Amino acid sequence: MSGSTANLACTATVGRLPNGVVMTVHVDIVEPDSARLMYEGMRQAQQDAGPVTDLPGVGAAAYTYTDESTGFNVATYDANLYLTIAAAPLRPGAALPGDLPARLTAVAASTLAALHT
Prior knowledge:
The chain is α+β, with helices and mostly antiparallel strands. It has 2 helices and 6 strands. The chain has helices at residues 32-49, 100-116, and strands spanning 6-14, 21-29, 53-54, 61-67, 71-78, 81-89. Strands 1-2-6-5-4-3 form a 6-stranded antiparallel beta sheet, with helices on both faces. The longest helix is centred in the middle third of the chain and has 18 residues, at 32-49. The radius of gyration is 14 Å and the shape is globular. The two termini are 16 Å apart.
């Protein structure tokens, strides 16, 4: 990919009120060094805003964080892919499912694998 990028995004609602979740998946397909730089820059910005948690076993590196407006987030990169997944409750202030971190981790890993093939 010589100097070009591609951006893919998908938003889906899972479930319905009052317990539904809005998920947003965003993928940037860039040159390999660019994916790492995007990841590192966004991680630093997020660390300045609040705590992040390393997420081993997903891509080259990954972390999670929670944001008031976007909910629970996973950010990862691998080779030329930079991937973010956000999940927020449909009803503001509602609790997210307890197994959501494990589910988003699985989505991130399978998305990276599918895009590499």
